[in-house]
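The instructor's notes for this session suggest beginning with a concrete chain rather than abstract definitions. Hand out the sequence below and ask the class to guess, before any prediction is shown, which regions might be ordered.
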Amino acid sequence: MAAPGTSLTIAAMNTLTSSSASTLPRVAVLATGGTIAGAAPDATNTSGYQAGVVGVGQLLAAVPSLATVANVQAEQVASVDSKDMTLALWATLARRVNDLLASDTVDGIVITHGTDTLEETAYLLHLSVKSDKPVVLTAAMRPSSALSADGPLNLLNAVTVAGNAQAKGQGVLVAFNNRIHSARDVVKTSTYAVDAFQSPEMGALGWVQDGRVEFQRRVVRPHTTATPFSIDSIGAGWPAVDIIASYAGASRIAVDALVAAGVRGLVVAGTGNGSIHASVQTALADAAAKGVAIVRSSRVGSGHVMRNGAASDDALGFVTAGALNPYKARVLLMLALAAGHTTPVALQQVFDTY
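After discussion, reveal the predicted structure:
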C-alpha cells in the first residue's frame, strides 16, 4: 500500500484513448483509510476486520469502470480507522483539499473515509473549504474483502458526482448507497446497514445511479467560500471544546472537571429539545459565567433545538444548535471560537447562519 502523503497515477485509469480521456473531468481521490480500505480474514467476516490497510491504488484498481467516468489522480493522505480521527489530520486534510482545488488541473475531489466520523469531517470541510468545486466523501459499511462489499460502487458513484457540473457550488457532499447528501444534514444512523447514512431532518439532496446524477434540491445555508472560517485561522491549536450528555441522575462532575481543565466550549447532548438535568444546568451556568461557551444540542436523532429566550437561554448565556447534532455542533463551535466569535450573541448568530 502507498504510504500516507504519496501521490500516484493509477495505470488502470489511463485505458481510454487520449481524445476521449481529455473530455473527462479531472478528479483527485484522497484516501484516509476506514472500512472501505479494510480487510478481514475471510469474505464472510464483516465486523472482525482491520480498517485502513488497503491502499488507494488497490481501491481504484477494483473499480476499472472509473476510467470511463473521470481522469483520476490518487493520493494516500492517511491510513486510519476513522474512530481515531485527530484534529491534526483534519487540518492536514483540509489544507490538502484547498491546495488541490486551487489548481486548474483538478475539477473535483473525492475523499474515502471511515464511517465513524465521516459526518464530522464532512461538515468541517463544508465550513472551511474555499472553492465551489465539488468535494465528495464516501465510505463503506463492509470491508473490501467482504461478500457484496459496498465500497467499490460507492467510490464509483462518488467520482461520478464529483465530476458532475450539478455538484458545483453545493458545498461538501456525501455519496453513499446511491444517495447524495449535504455534509450539514447527513448522519450515520445504523451500525451495520449499507444504507447507514441518512439526512433525517431534511432528506437527501438527490441520487446517483448508473452514471446519472440528479439533484432534487440545493443547499441553501452559506458554506465553503461564503463562510468566514479557515483552517489557517486555527494557528497554534484548536480551541478545546468537549461534549457532555444529560440523562437521568446526571451530576455536575464532568462539567466541573472539563472547566477546570481549561475548555473554551461545551456542547451538551440534551434530552428532547436540548433540555438539561437541573444539576448539569447549574454547572453549565457557572461555566458560562466564567466565559466558557455553552451550546445546547440534543441526543435525539432528528429535529432541532429551539431557543428558550429570556426564560432560560438568554439569562444563562446559552446558545442553541438548531438542527446540528452534538458532534457537528462541536465542529462549528471550534471554528467559531477560532474565528473570534466568543459572546453568546455572536455565537448564536453563527449557529443560526451555518
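Then share the key points. The chain has a mean pLDDT of 93. DSSP finds ten helices and 15 strands in the chain.
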